[in-house]
Design brief:
The chain is of the alpha+beta class. It folds into 3 domains: 123 residues, Rossmann fold (3-Layer(aba) Sandwich), CATH 3.40.50; 55 residues, no CATH class; 91 residues. The protein has 12 helices and 11 strands. It has a 4-stranded mixed β-sheet. The longest helix has 14 residues. The two termini are 14 Å apart. The relative contact order is 0.11. It binds S-adenosylmethionine (SAM).
Length: 335
C-alpha cells in the first residue's frame, strides 16, 4: 500500500499486537517512506472509528472476513470509517478455495480441523493431497505451521460464492462496484458473443452470475456505499449518478474501412484485456470528450442511451471497468 500510495496518510489496524509489532518491523526496514500509523483495534468493535479515525477515502480489508462468523458486523463498522464517495476493497475466500474440499476430506480421516493439533499426521495427509492436486497451486504440506493453523485448520471459514458475499455486503448497505475477474470473464463471454444472455444485469449481478459459472477460490471485490434504492443498476448511466472514466484503459483510434467508421482499440494492462469496437464518427467524438473530461459531459449518457446498441456498449464498458457509475467524490478512488 505504501509503495502504491507514497504520499497518502495510511492507518493500519489489527487486533493482534504481535501482528502490529511485525508490521512495524517491516516498515522500519523500508527507508524514506511517509510513516504509517499503527493501531491495535478489533474490527468487530462498534466504536472502531474512535480507534482508527473516520473519513477514509479507501479501506482495504484483505484475508480477514473469511474467518469471522459475522462479517456483516465488520462491514457495518467499516462503513463508519469511510467518507462519502469512498470505497472498500475486500479480499475474501471463494467457493473454490482449496479448504472447501480439503477440510471435509481431512475430517474423514478422523483429523480435527478446527485447530492445529496433530501436525505430523496433517502434513502426511497434505502430502497425498498435494500429489493428487498437482495443479501448480502450491505445496500445502511444506507451508509454515502458522499458515496451516490459520488457512487449513481454523475454527471458522466463509468460503463463499460471490453471490453469497454480495448478499452479505448488500445487507450492510454496500454494493459491488467491481471484481478482479469480472473484466476478463465478461471479455471471454463477449468474444464469443455469448454475453447477450447477461444483458442488462448490473455490475454486482454480472459478477455473481459469472462466478457461478466459473467459481473463484478467492475474490477481490471493490465496494461502494449504495445510495438508498439504487443497489442494483440495471443499466450503466441510468438515474442521476454520473458516469466516470476509470482510467484503467487506454484507447487507440484508427480509421477503418469503407463504412467510414472508426476502430477503437481498448487496452487494459492490469486486467490483460484488449478489445475493439467499431464506432461512428459522432460516437468517437463523444468518447474523446468523455475521456478528456474524466466525467461524462452533460447529455452524454442520454445521447448514448438513444439506441439499443449504444445502451449495450455502455453496459459492456461498465462491466469491463472502462467506466464506473458513482458520485463525484468517488472519482478520487477511480482505478
Ligand atoms: C490472514 S491475516 C491477513 C493479514 C493481511 N491483511 C494480509 O493480507 O497479509 C488475518 C489478520 O486479521 C487479523 N484479524 C482477525 N480478526 C480481526 C478482528 N476482528 N479485528 C482486527 N484484526 C483481525 C488477524 O490478527 C490477522 O493478522
Amino acid at each position: 500500500m505504501r509503495r502504491r500510495l507514497p504520499t497518502a496518510e495510511i492507518v493500519a489496524v489489527d487486533f493482534s499486537p504481535r501482528s502490529i509489532v511485525w508490521a512495524q518491523r517491516l516498515e522500519r526496514a523500508t527507508d524514506g517512506v511517509r510513516p504509517i500509523t499503527f493501531r491495535v483495534g478489533d474490527l468487530t468493535d462498534r466504536k472502531i472509528a474512535d480507534v482508527v479515525g473516520g473519513d477514509f477515502d479507501l479501506i482495504t480489508c484483505h484475508g480477514v472476513l473469511s474467518y469471522l462468523p459475522k462479517p456483516s458486523v465488520v462491514l457495518e463498522n467499516l462503513a463508519s470509517c469511510l467518507r462519502a464517495g469512498g470505497a472498500l476493497y475486500l479480499g475474501v475466500n471463494g467457493e473454490a478455495h482449496p479448504a472447501t474440499r480439503l477440510r471435509p476430506w481431512l475430517a474423514s480421516f478422523g483429523l480435527a480441523v478446527d485447530e492445529l493439533r496433530k501436525e505430523r499426521r496433517l502434513r502426511e495427509l497434505l502430502g497425498l493431497w498435494d500429489a493428487l492436486n498437482d495443479d501448480g497451486s502450491g505445496e500445502l504440506a511444506t507451508m509454515s505451521s502458522s499458515y496451516l493453523g490459520g488457512d487449513v485448520c481454523g475454527p471458522h471459514f466463509n468460503n463463499w460464492s460471490l453471490a453469497q458475499w454480495r448478499a452479505e455486503v448488500n445487507h450492510s448497505g454496500w454494493e459491488v462496484a467491481g471484481t478482479d475477474v469480472l473484466p476478463m470473464a465478461l471479455h471471454l463471454a463477449a468474444e464469443r458473443k455469448n454475453e447477450r444472455v447477461l444483458y442488462p444485469a448490473g455490475v454486482g449481478e454480472l459478477a455473481a452470475r459469472l462466478d457461478q459459472a466459473r467459481p473463484a477460490g478467492f475474490h477481490r471485490i471493490l465496494l461502494r456505499r449504495a445510495p438508498a434504492g439504487a443497489l442494483e443498476l440495471t443499466n450503466a448511466g441510468e438515474g442521476a449518478r454520473p458516469l466516470h472514466w476509470t482510467g484503467l484503459y487506454t484507447v487507440r483510434f484508427s480509421q477503418s474501412g469503407a463504412r467510414r467508421t472508426v476502430k477503437a482499440v481498448f487496452n487494459c494492462a492490469a486486467f490483460h484485456v484488449r478489445f475493439e469496437h467499431e464506432l461512428t464518427a459522432s460516437q468517437t467524438l463523444a468518447l474523446r470528450a468523455f475521456m478528456a473530461a474524466g466525467v461524462a459531459p452533460d447529455g452524454w449518457t442520454k445521447q448514448w442511451n438513444r439506441t439499443s446498441e449504444g445502451r449495450r456498449l455502455l453496459w459492456l464498458w461498465a462491466g469491463l471497468g472502462v467506466v464506473a457509475v458513482g458520485d463525484a467524490a468517488g472519482a478520487g478512488v477511480r482505478g
